[in-house]
C-alpha cells in the first residue's frame, strides 16, 4: 500500500506551514547518532530477530512464528470486511519454499473462488504492503477467476529472511524465483499476473523470466517502468512544489540510511509511532467498523522485523522510484506475453511515460489505460473499478 509515501506526505503537508521556506532546512535535525537510535526508549519497540546477534537461527525462527500468529489474528479481522465469508469462501495459508540455508521460508497466501474450471489470477502487492491491499477486490475478481493474493517473501506475513542482498539483479532473481517456486508448489500451470507499484515491477520481471506460465501480465501504477536520466530527475525536483521538496529531503535521508517503515515505526525517534499510525489511518478514510481492525493489523505488521522491505533500496533509485533496470529498457524484443499498463491521473506519483512509449511505439503487445480520477492507490481507494478493469481485459 506504499504506506511510507502517504504517511510522510501527509506529515509534511500538516507541518509545511509551520516550517516555512527557511525552516525547511530544519529537517537536518532528522539524522541521529547511532547511540541515540539504539538507546531509544520508544514504548512501541519490539525485538527484531535480525538484530539479535547471539540468537540462533532456531530461536529467530520461533520468535518470527510467534509474532506472525498475533498478526494473523488481526488479518482475519480485516478480512471480515472483504465481503467474503471467511469461514468457507476464503483460505489463508502458507506455502513452504526451498532454501539454500535450510531455513524454513514460506509465502503467505490468500485464496478464493476455488474452481478447477476457472482461470487462475495471482495478485502481487506493492512496497511496505501485503496481500490485504486487495481485500476489497477479492470478491468481484473471484466471480471469474480462482484468485490468489500473496505476500511477497520478506513482507507481510511471509517469512522474514535476513536481507544481505547487494545490487538489483540478485534481488529481482530472489523475488522471481520465489514466485516460481510458489507456483510450482501450488500446481498452477498458467495464470494472469497482476502487480501493483513495486509488485508491478517484480511482476514485469517474472513475465520476462517465465512467459510460458502467463496468459498476460497487468501492471497497476507500476514502479520501475520509465527510464529516467539524471537531467529528468533534476528538472522534476526543481519544478516540484514546496511540500514535495520537503518530502524529497525526508526521503533522501531515509534512502541514504535505508530506513524501512518497520524501523521508523518501532526503533527510531524520527517520528513518534503514534503520529505515524494516526496519519496512516487518517489517510485510509475507513468506515468506523473497519478502523480498529486495520489499526491493529498495521500496528502488528510494523512491529515485525524488517526484511523484504529493504528490497526497494536495491531495485529503485531516489527520488522518483525509477529502477536501476527499468522495464522500458528490458521489455522491447524480450517480453513474450501481453502486458496491460494502467495508471492514474495527476495524483498518481508513478511515472507512466515509459509505459506509454512502449505501447505507442508497439514495442510490446498490450494496452495502456489511464483513469484520471485515480491516484496511486488503485487497489484501496478504487477497488471495484480496478477489479472491473481486470475482468474486462
UniProtKB/TrEMBL annotation:
<dbReference type="InterPro" id="IPR000073">
    <property type="entry name" value="AB_hydrolase_1"/>
</dbReference>
<dbReference type="GO" id="GO:0006654">
    <property type="term" value="P:phosphatidic acid biosynthetic process"/>
</dbReference>
<dbReference type="GO" id="GO:0042171">
    <property type="term" value="F:lysophosphatidic acid acyltransferase activity"/>
</dbReference>
<dbReference type="InterPro" id="IPR029058">
    <property type="entry name" value="AB_hydrolase_fold"/>
</dbReference>
<protein>
    <submittedName>
        <fullName>Alpha/beta fold hydrolase</fullName>
    </submittedName>
</protein>
<feature type="domain" description="AB hydrolase-1">
    <location>
        <begin position="121"/>
        <end position="234"/>
    </location>
</feature>
<dbReference type="GO" id="GO:0052689">
    <property type="term" value="F:carboxylic ester hydrolase activity"/>
</dbReference>
<feature type="region of interest" description="Disordered">
    <location>
        <begin position="38"/>
        <end position="59"/>
    </location>
</feature>
<feature type="compositionally biased region" description="Low complexity">
    <location>
        <begin position="38"/>
        <end position="51"/>
    </location>
</feature>
<comment type="similarity">
    <text>Belongs to the peptidase S33 family. ABHD4/ABHD5 subfamily.</text>
</comment>
<dbReference type="GO" id="GO:0055088">
    <property type="term" value="P:lipid homeostasis"/>
</dbReference>
<keyword id="KW-0378">Hydrolase</keyword>
<dbReference type="Pfam" id="PF00561">
    <property type="entry name" value="Abhydrolase_1"/>
</dbReference>
Amino acid at each position: 500500500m506504499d504506506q511510507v509515501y502517504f504517511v510522510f506526505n501527509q506529515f509534511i503537508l500538516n507541518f509545511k506551514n509551520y516550517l516555512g521556506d527557511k525552516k525547511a532546512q530544519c529537517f537536518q535535525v532528522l539524522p541521529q547518532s547511532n547511540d541515540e537510535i539504539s538507546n531509544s526508549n520508544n514504548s512501541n519497540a519490539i525485538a527484531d530477530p535480525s538484530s539479535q546477534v547471539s540468537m540462533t537461527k532456531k530461536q529467530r525462527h520461533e520468535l518470527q512464528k510467534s509474532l506472525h500468529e498475533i498478526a494473523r489474528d488481526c488479518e482475519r479481522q480485516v478480512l471480515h470486511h472483504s465481503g467474503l465469508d471467511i469461514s468457507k469462501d476464503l483460505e489463508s495459508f502458507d506455502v513452504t519454499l526451498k532454501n539454500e540455508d535450510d531455513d524454513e521460508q514460506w509465502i503467505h497466501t490468500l485464496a478464493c473462488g476455488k474452481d478447477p474450471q476457472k482461470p487462475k489470477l495471482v495478485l502481487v502487492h506493492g512496497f511496505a504492503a501485503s496481500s490485504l491491499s486487495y481485500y476489497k477486490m477479492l470478491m468481484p475478481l473471484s466471480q471469474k477467476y480462482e484468485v490468489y493474493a500473496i505476500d511477497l517473501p520478506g513482507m507481510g506475513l511471509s517469512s522474514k529472511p535476513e536481507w544481505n542482498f547487494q545490487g538489483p539483479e540478485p534481488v529481482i532473481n530472489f523475488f522471481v524465483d520465489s514466485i516460481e517456486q510458489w507456483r510450482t508448489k501450488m500446481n498452477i500451470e498458467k495464470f494472469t499476473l497482476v502487480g501493483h507499484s513495486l509488485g508491478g515491477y517484480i511482476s514485469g520481471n517474472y513475465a520476462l523470466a517465465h512467459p510460458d506460465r502467463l496468459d498476460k501480465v497487468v501492471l497497476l501504477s507500476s514502479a520501475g517502468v520509465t527510464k529516467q536520466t539524471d537531467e529528468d530527475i533534476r528538472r522534476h525536483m526543481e519544478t516540484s512544489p514546496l511540500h514535495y521538496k520537503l518530502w524529497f529531503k525526508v526521503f533522501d535521508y531515509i534512502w541514504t540510511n535505508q530506513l524501512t517503515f518497520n524501523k521508523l515505526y518501532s526503533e527510531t525517534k524520527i517520528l513518534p509511532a503514534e503520529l505515524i499510525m494516526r496519519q496512516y489511518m487518517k489517510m485510509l478514510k475507513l468506515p468506523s467498523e473497519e478502523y480498529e481492525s486495520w489499526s491493529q493489523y498495521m500496528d502488528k505488521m510494523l512491529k515485525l522485523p524488517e526484511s523484504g522491505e529493504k528490497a526497494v533500496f536495491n531495485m529503485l533509485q531516489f527520488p522518483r522510484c525509477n529502477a536501476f533496470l527499468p522495464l522500458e529498457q528490458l521489455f522491447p524484443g524480450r517480453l513474450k506475453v501481453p502486458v496491460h499498463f494502467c495508471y492514474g491521473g495527476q495524483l498518481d506519483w508513478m511515472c507512466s511515460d515509459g509505459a506509454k512509449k512502449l505501447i505507442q511505439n508497439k514495442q510490446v503487445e498490450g494496452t495502456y489505460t489511464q483513469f484520471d480520477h485515480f491516484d496511486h492507490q488503485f487497489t484501496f481507494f478504487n477497488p471495484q473499478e480496478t477489479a472491473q478493469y481486470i475482468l474486462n481485459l
